[in-house]
Structure formats: C-alpha cells, structure tokens
Amino acid sequence: MSANKNFHITAQAIDAHDPELRELNLKLTQIHDNPETCYKEYKAHENITQFLEAKGVTVERHAFGLETSFVAEYGKGGRVVTYCAEYDALPVIGHGCGHNLICVSSVAAFLGVVEAMKTDPSITGRVRLLGCPAEEGEGGKIRLINAGAYKDVDAAIMTHPTPFASKMPEADGIAYGTCLAAVGFLAKFKGRPAHAAAMPWAGINAADAASLAYNAVGLLRQHIKPNDRINIIIPQAGTGHNVIPDTSTVRVSVRSETSSQMEELRTRVENCCKGAALATGCSLELLAVMDPYADLRPNESLCNEFTQNMALSGKKYYNDQSVRDLSCFSTDMGNVSYEVPSFHGNFCIQTDADVALHTAGFRDAARKPDAHALAMGVGKGMAGAGLRVLTDEAFATEVREDFKRDQAAR
Fold first, then answer.
1. Which residue ranges does the record assign to the Peptidase M20 dimerisation domain (predicted)?
2. What is the DSSP string of 311-371?
3. Average pLDDT value for the chain
4. Does residue 111 sit in the same domain as residue 226?
5. What local confidence, expressed as pLDDT, does residue 3 receive?
C-alpha cells in the first residue's frame, strides 16, 4: 500500500470521526477548570475509555498497574504501532502544555488506522492506543516502560503542540528534533533552632544553607554548556522571623543535551548543596523527585514519513536531519525513544504574541476550535506513518535500521 494511499484512507476516517472527537476534546479541555495532575487523571481516563468503548474498541482500563492508564488495541499478529496519549494537566494552570491536543490527535490517529484495517482485512499487525499519565514531571511513561508496555512495539508515535517558533516562522511544525534530558531532586537541610535575637549563636541556620546552595548554583551557571539548564527554587526556609530556621528545602531541576551529560551536571549541582551544608554545619539529605527523563532520539524514517504525509495536506514541517534541532523542553517520551523507534513531532498552534508553553495563554489557545482542527491534521499524518509501518516491510526495516544506528551512536 503506497504512502499516499495510506494517508488518504486514514484521513477520510478521521474526518468521519471529527464531530465526536471535537466532543472528546471539549471534555478534556473542560478539565482546565479542575486540572487533573499526575496520576490523578480520573475524569480524563473515564472520558477517553468510554469514548473508545462506544466505538466498539476493546479497552483495558487501569493498565500496567497504573490507575489512570489504559490500553486500546485492534488487529492481530504482525508488527505493533503504539500511539501515545497524554492527558495530565499542570497544577492551577490546567492544560498549559496542550495535552488535550496530544490526546485527541493520538486518538484520531488510532481510529484512522483501525478504520483502514477494517477496510482492508489483509492488513496484519496491531495498532495500539496507550494512555500515558503523569508526563509533567513524574515520568508516567518510565513506569509504563518498566511494566513492559513497549516491549513488543515496533514504532511509538505522538505529537506535541507548541507556539510558532521565531527561528522558523514559515514552518507549521517540527518533525525532526530533540530535547533535553532532565532530572529533579530535593536538597533538604537540617540545622538547629534557636531564638533569633536572644541566642542566635546556639542555632544552625538551615536557611543559610539553602541560600548558599542557591547562590552556588548561580555561580555554576557561568561554567556550564550553552544548552544546559538549572532551575532552582527554595520552597521552604523557616517558619518565623524570630526563630533560626532548623529546616529548609531546595528544589532543583537539571537539564542537558544527553542523559550522560545530565548525570554529570547533576553531580556538580549536588556538590553545590553539599558545600552549602558543610559551610553552615547542616546535615543534608538528597531526595529524587522524578525519574531521569532521557533526551529524545527521533527516528529518521518516521520523521520523513510524517513530513511527507503532512505535505500532502499542504503543511510544511521542519525536517533537517543534518542539524539536530534542539528544543529545551524535556519529556518522558525521550525514555521511550531509547527503547523503541519513536516519533515526537511538534505542531504549531496560533497564540497571542509572546505566549509560551506552560502558561494560561497557551492553555486558552489550546482549547480553541482552530487548534483542534490542527490536531486532527496532525492525527492524519501520524496515522499514515503508523499504517505504513504495518503494511510496508521495507519501510519497517528502514525504521528498525535507523534505530539500531542510533543505539550504536549513543
């Protein structure tokens, strides 16, 4: 089956489902008023699984030991294509990262491939929709990997909405690009309380330790690579102005171009905290708050196929594989890309000027009808790419060989 035919078959199916997909997207965006954060996506889980079951799709709820994950699957034997649906929101802001659009585009792609397989019973293989909770900092996909959700997968596919990029304003999105590896930890300092005026010498000031750690990281930034990122806050550093604080907490996120570079930078940042503890006489406890997110390893053949599919609908996607375009976000889809051939594209939606991801402005843009329409177009591109993996042995081999070459280069 040709790439063009793949695209047109799945595109027609997605258009047929669009009215109901709009309703599903509306249900997801309504969660803005009551954001469902990591592992608490109960309404989203119920809305999506009910929608799929009404379509006659077999769904396993609460899959892989995660209460808000699910698996929907169609077909038998052969290769497996998985579409990853994210639907968690940010605290207070809601879908400031547009996960409602990620979800609905993956649902659309899945249904498009299902309809193509129903139309042509000779197509072997399985198409899967995997519910992926807790992307925003708690690594839901990492837990899914560990539970075996990707062990038989030949291609994992999803897209993420983004504002238009100033460096490529003519593009409708990015097909080939990567992101930063990331990890987060808490530094908890323990000192000794004392009256801040009567007996300050009797205390050991944990707030001083937090302040020293914060400033040491600030000085470290002068000596890190251009694409490294260190984000640090002090969420707790005392309870009363007249008491020497005996406890404080520093929250740190560290990001680098690759997982190995990220681990090296984490050690340097941890040393800043250790030095602050030593200087003030505090004890220090370092606690992980998220599993490490790997950098994204895009599969070249999947990127090419998606780009070609989107061109059929008049959309231009940046896909320069001679330049590994780096975006400074992080995602647990990076960990998936270390396990199986993966595609994580970015599609641009219209926003007001200077609106960034993880803001109320982007949340509001992601709930608009034109953003939904763009997500449906992206779903068509993903569907065509996935169907080609199932139907074209030579293309599936290219995808596997790309993945093997990347494994050797890591």
1. 183-276
2. HHTT--EE--TTS--EES---THHHHHHHS-EEEEEEE----TT--SSSHHHHHHHTSHHH
3. 93
4. no
5. 61
